[in-house]
Amino acid sequence: MAAARTTVLKYYALRAVSTPGFMWPVSILYLVSHDVSYATLALAGAAAAVLTVVGEVPTGYVSDRLGRRNTIVVAQVLFGTYPLTLLFARSPPTVVAAFCLLGLAETLQSGAVTAWLYDALDAHDATARYTRVEGRGQAIRLAVLAVTMVAGGLLYALNPDLPFVASTVMGSTGALVATTLPATGEGDGSDHLGVREALTVVREHLLSRELRGFIALSSLAVAVGVSARSYVQPITVDAMSPLLAGVTVAGSPLPETAVLGVVYASFTGFGALLSDRAAGVEAWLGTRRTVLCSFLVDALAMCAVLVEPLLVVPMMFVHRGVVSVLGPVKRSYLNEQLESVGRATVLSAVSMVVSLVQVPVGLGGGVLADRLAPEVAVAALGALLLVTTVLAALSTPVVFEERETAAPAD
């Protein structure tokens, strides 16, 4: 039991330092301020998604062969490098290259962390605690993220480059922490899938009755959320500018980016609170209703931005809450359908589907934002998710069999 607790604590430590949050409230604003268009940002996001489509299954297979821990270390090194590349990203090719680096890091890590945690708990006969442990780990990550976001907004006001340098330092620390994780899924090679077997396992799981509808709707929801978040910073700054006019601190104008950092930290902290209660929400509503209700609420919040742009702030509270609750629930459900051998490969294939859906959704949102307005793009994305969720609820169950969930205990 002590060994299991040590493993969980190391996982919590990784989650605390694995996300360089200093740059997140200002990264899009920074690029736009250097004349990077929304269309270029959408193109870069689509290119990263294509890279993920091409690389997800191979990198998941590499994770199963190389080992989850080693894959996580490499991914964290790339996460630490990404913030520095944004300092030099100005033209479309350089912006695309920077986003592709992030895409590669996410591709390497997407299946590895989830597979590592599930197998690490399985080694101690504690998989029933997965949703609870994963939810608390995400809560810790979001709490640290909230603090660094506030600091990032203030650093940006001092020097726009500072949040990116700080993010690199923190992201690199994640690689050091990852080296301390116990190895899982390493084996001696005899229990690994061959390439042909891996492809067969991926096909069977993606098309299975238990997963196909769940993956389809979840992929659309993730794609909509990623695209909508791209426009939060400029919408918020534009909406707040009239409200902050004439506001001073110690005789100096209050920087909008400092307020933006606090806003981001607020809804991130809210997400941390809900993430820690993900297992309780699932036990109360059941998996299917948790998924459907969350998507409906998220979609309605996005649509509301068209009525009043400043509603983008409560929208992000809702969205962060939805993501924080659904993340552990979805990953727990997926893991229960998979065997340890090939787990990372299949989870990476799921991420590949998400990225494939993200390409047209992201490009469409970018065109709408440039031709009309960012708030129109956000509302259109919300309408897409709303209609799709309603149709899914009326036609085919999203989750075909309810799971027995463990009582929230740590």
From TrEMBL:
<feature type="transmembrane region" description="Helical">
    <location>
        <begin position="12"/>
        <end position="32"/>
    </location>
</feature>
<dbReference type="InterPro" id="IPR011701">
    <property type="entry name" value="MFS"/>
</dbReference>
<feature type="transmembrane region" description="Helical">
    <location>
        <begin position="139"/>
        <end position="158"/>
    </location>
</feature>
<feature type="transmembrane region" description="Helical">
    <location>
        <begin position="95"/>
        <end position="118"/>
    </location>
</feature>
<keyword id="KW-0812">Transmembrane</keyword>
<dbReference type="InterPro" id="IPR005829">
    <property type="entry name" value="Sugar_transporter_CS"/>
</dbReference>
<keyword id="KW-1133">Transmembrane helix</keyword>
<protein>
    <submittedName>
        <fullName>MFS transporter</fullName>
    </submittedName>
</protein>
<keyword id="KW-0472">Membrane</keyword>
<feature type="transmembrane region" description="Helical">
    <location>
        <begin position="252"/>
        <end position="274"/>
    </location>
</feature>
<feature type="transmembrane region" description="Helical">
    <location>
        <begin position="295"/>
        <end position="317"/>
    </location>
</feature>
<feature type="transmembrane region" description="Helical">
    <location>
        <begin position="346"/>
        <end position="369"/>
    </location>
</feature>
<dbReference type="Pfam" id="PF07690">
    <property type="entry name" value="MFS_1"/>
</dbReference>
<feature type="transmembrane region" description="Helical">
    <location>
        <begin position="38"/>
        <end position="59"/>
    </location>
</feature>
<feature type="transmembrane region" description="Helical">
    <location>
        <begin position="71"/>
        <end position="89"/>
    </location>
</feature>
<dbReference type="InterPro" id="IPR036259">
    <property type="entry name" value="MFS_trans_sf"/>
</dbReference>
<dbReference type="InterPro" id="IPR053160">
    <property type="entry name" value="MFS_DHA3_Transporter"/>
</dbReference>
<feature type="transmembrane region" description="Helical">
    <location>
        <begin position="376"/>
        <end position="400"/>
    </location>
</feature>
<dbReference type="GO" id="GO:0016020">
    <property type="term" value="C:membrane"/>
</dbReference>
